Structure of Beta-glucosidase:
Amino acid sequence: MSSIIQSAITDTTVTSSHHLPTVARSDFPSNFVWGCSTSSFQIEGGADLDGRVPSIWDSFCQQAGKIRDGSNALVACDHYHRWPEDLDIAKQLGMNAYRFSIAWPRIITEIGGAPNQRGLDFYSRLVDGMLERGLQPWATLYHWDLPQYLQDIGGWENRATIDAYLAYADAVTRRLGDRVKNWITHNEPWCTAMHGNWDGMHAPGQKNFKAALQVAHHVMVSHGLAVPMIRANVTDAHVGIALSLHPLRAASQSEEDQEAMQRHDGLRNRWFLDPLFGRGYPLDIQAHCAEFLPEIRLGDLDAIATPVDFLGVNYYFPETIAAAAENPPLHTRLRELAGRERTGFGWEVAPDGMRELLYRITQDYPAVPIYLTENGSSYDDQLEADGSVNDSQRRDYFIRHLDALKRARQQGVDVRGYFAWSLIDNFEWAEGYLRRFGMVYVDFATQARTLKQSGQWFCDFLNRSNK
């Protein structure tokens, strides 16, 4: 087994301009899940190997101006070939779980096609590799890489994609369900719908609010219909969904800004949480967006409300909302307040927002176990001449957010696991390779992996006391 930890940064003394809290693994239960998250399109590469067909993101990358640095993910981190090394790193860090996603274009390569055995074989080997290293597999079925052949007939806007998703999910869970017990149906349906179909920042790049709401509905219906199917295919299945959720602040105390915040909350958070927990779509947003509402068939809302075994929460930052007459249909806009600490991506660093969000979920919705399925930060990391990457800001970010997680648990929030985003630097969607979120630095020219200071801290945190 290769190791990048022994030769990495040895001085893990915490020095920071912030007053850092004290957090230890012993602050959490012994059965707490500690993992890292990745996604197939962002790390795998191998874009034309073993029968894989293009995804909407392959097509998006080919469009001029869509990816900030003009790059693509044809190679990415070459995880398709280097997965043993990457899993070794996760094990050496002290993780006991590994969240990954499965590339739909590797599994079903044409409309109505039979499962591609070479694609299934790859993930079977990957899962075996996790288990050999003591890593509990957490599989995400959909992390945005829709096959292009489905987008050609309308993508998620076309209800036929629900059936295609169920056929894909059936094939995967039948093949891997003897070893994979933890399943996430979708990652961040808000991004699938809104970034992909409203603001056009993500593939397929559409700018149509009505289409976005229809996409969101079909994604959520596919989730609900997949849950019982996965349970039928997988003994002792543990099934949930990962939502991107944000605590919100109004830009001012004015009635206009307060109302704008409520509307934004309705679309950003409640549009997904409410139907998931059996309440249907928020009535205030339905009234405000009446002309854009999706087509909802009989039984759809019951399907979406199929009880889950857990809720995955992806937390990165809070949002500050102001009223805006020029931004229909919600008439809201994000406002960046001066003087706030930010990541290299420009996202506000607000650890207590995590605690606030988790507490709100437990107060507003029925009790369900929660897992932090993503949390992390991007900074402009540099590989130093001595081979180190001194990302003290990311290290501090982890310390402060784990403390917030500890405090959420002390308030009674049933949080059972934490997955750092991400194990390694990767292709960051529309940002290309300009943003680095990893605990491991990747030189994309050579594919060399170098543990960052944040990764060394996480290793020490997990291994200092594993009781």
